[in-house]
Amino acid sequence: MKQMQFRMHRYVFQPTALGIAITLLCIPLFIKLGLWQYSKAQQKQLIHEAYDQAKLDKALEFPLGITDSSANHVNDWKYKKVSVQGVYDTNYQFLLDNQVEGDRVGYHVITPLKIDNSNEYVLVNRGWILGKDTHTELPVFNTPEGKQTLTGQIWVPSKKIFTLEGPVDSSEVSAQLGNQHWQPVWQNISMEKYKRSVPFNVSELAIKLDQESTAGGFVRNWQIPADRITNNLGYAYQWFGFAFAALLIFFYISTTKVRPENNSATG
User: Fold this and answer.
1) What is the residue extent of each domain of the chain?
2) What is the pLDDT of residues 236-259, one digit of tens each?
3) CB under 8 Å to 184, separation ≥6 — which residues?
């Protein structure tokens, strides 16, 4: 099979079959990876916009009946600002471990709220509290009694990131919350496992308590639930750069300069 060859002035472009194959493989792959990272940046931009807009919108009434993870309406409620009334149930609240505020490590307080005029509960993230020096001693905190009216943003715990692990505290520590059979500290959260662990119906949607709410909140410096968009854009441009570099390398290694003596010999 005759090798492809193009000549322009004193330069000859003569690519090899291996070089063509590698280039045709690498360039589409790099472009695809770049588009993937760019798409992730676009998705996170939409999350940022929805998150910021929710802070400005009027609070909606918390939706009842979304207790199935496969419900179509779950994602539609993400980051929405909602309002709900009910009573906290401290028997099945827990502390979400390894939560950082500034340079200090503590917990997020997660308390179920019995919704008024309903048999449904919703998990409320009441904010961050500082942990003790050892995990065998739980921090002391108060939970308001009676009917509470609270506002906050919808939070849907991710199935891909959070899983419920075994207890990290002894039964003696469990007694501090008044329930010998309840795990008071969780390393992660799984809505499915929580539903199987409690004797009541729980909404698939959870709430992050608003900073202005007075319904028993703690430190609530909520972060935007997405990585920096510039990171994904940087990765995208990097992959596009690799594709362009692969093209340049292909032309460079496939091009040779003809020496003057070769010109005279072939003339």
Assistant:
1) 6-45+229-266, 87-149+156-202
2) 999 999 999 999 999 888 888 777
3) 94, 95, 138, 169, 173, 174, 176, 177
